[in-house]
Specification:
This protein is mainly alpha-helical. 66% of the residues lie in helices and 0% in strands. The longest helix is centred in the first third of the chain and has 30 residues.
């Protein structure tokens, strides 16, 4: 039996089991033994399919987180104070901003607003008109002519589906242009973003001021661009606009954004986005502003004669109908204010709408007052 010392066996073990692996690693360091394998074709296809989900996964996780749900549910099912509700919202908003890139938050929020306040209601109105035409014709201002799937519009096989698809594509085009503007500002010009995106919340009076001046400037821009860029005989966009949107005999909600893409950008996107860009709205203010615009488009082009009261929506809807059915000879603005000043109103103007709303409100108050008087019990006379 060999009698080598213990130090020999220790050096032998170190050389065989510790030193030699490092020698091999250093010798073959330039080879790809220790690099991860390249993804296969199927892996690349799966990553491509999964990419849109990965882009919006983190914002959705934040929106569906416990703070977000608590902000939505606590004011409804609890008696917490307004300050506490605002605190929950601030925590939710800060979490959303700090855990995601500003561009993701802006794009996802803008897309969500357009889907919730325009595309889904417009789809619901379209489904109602198609599923219950006998009921829908009773609440349509133009009767059967205004039914998207009626005989006047080509029947069930008409082009209502094309109008819906083009309108949806134009909405997505607007979101894409907004994203491109933000990328151009931040990545190319290396300046601040077009909209203010921060963890701080805007004050209520600041929100109100931005909404008022934003909607007023949108009215002016919409009138000017609509009249002089889409209805002027020398404008190259006039034929696009007349051959697309003005081929619809009576409006329904999807018609609001149905137009040639260039005409849509001039008629809808620019008047809506430029005020937010000029005044640099806070993102929350912009989403409120966009929600108002989306609801106005949904109801103004719905063709219904029963609309939410107190918002002068009935007059706006009637002016939009007269504009389409009058071949664009007036009613170029959104609310009718500039049309009233410029004398291009077709039919009733915005002052008539305000007067009608005031009369309806006065009548309702008188009816309620009489109902209260009728409901009172007569006082019993005391016997002397």
């Amino acid at each position: 039996m060999p009698s080598e010392p213990l130090s020999y066996w220790i050096s032998f073990l170190v050389s065989q089991y510790i030193q030699r692996p490092f020698v091999y690693i250093w010798k073959y360091r330039d080879m790809n033994f220790f690099q991860s394998a390249q993804p296969s074709v199927l892996d690349r296809v799966w990553l491509t399919i999964r990419y849109p989900y990965d882009v919006f996964r983190n914002p959705l996780d934040a929106l569906l987180s416990i703070p977000a749900l608590s902000f939505l549910l606590i004011p409804t099912f609890s008696s917490y104070s307004t300050s506490l509700n605002l605190l929950f919202f601030y925590v939710t908003w800060s979490t959303l901003i700090l855990s995601n890139s500003p561009l993701k938050v802006e794009v996802l929020g803008t897309l969500s607003i357009r889907v919730l306040f325009y595309l889904l209601p417009a789809l619901g109105f379209l489904a109602f008109d198609g599923a219950a035409p006998n009921l829908a014709v009773k609440v349509k201002e133009q009767g059967e002519t205004a039914l998207p799937m009626g005989d006047e519009q080509g029947g069930p096989k008409g082009r209502w589906w094309k109008v819906a698809l083009v309108s949806t594509a134009n909405v997505l085009l607007g979101v894409a242009i907004q994203s491109g503007v933000e990328l151009f500002f931040t990545k190319v010009l290396h300046i601040r973003s077009a909209l203010r995106i921060s963890t701080s919340l805007p004050m209520p009076w600041a929100i109100a001021i931005d909404l008022i001046r934003g909607l007023f400037l949108r009215e002016i821009l919409s009138y000017a661009l609509h009249r002089y860029a889409l209805h002027h005989p020398d404008s190259p966009l006039t034929d696009y606009h007349m051959n697309w949107q003005h081929t619809i005999s009576a409006p329904y909600s999807f018609v609001a954004n149905y137009d040639h893409p260039l005409a849509y950008i001039v008629h809808v996107f620019l008047p809506t986005y430029l005020p937010a860009l000029l005044f640099r709205f806070h993102l929350l203010t912009y989403h409120m502003y966009l929600a108002i615009v989306s609801l106005e488009e949904t109801f103004a082009y719905s063709g219904y004669n029963i609309l939410p009261s107190g918002l002068i929506l009935g007059g706006i809807a009637r002016r939009q109908e007269r504009h389409l059915m009058g071949e664009g000879k007036g009613n170029y603005g959104c609310f009718g204010i500039v049309d009233f000043v410029a004398g291009t109103t077709l039919g009733e103007d915005v002052v008539d709408d305000i007067r009608e709303e005031a009369e309806n409100t006065h009548v309702q108050e008188r009816v309620k007052g009489r109902a209260k008087k009728v409901g009172r019990k007569p006082k019993s006379r005391s016997r002397s």
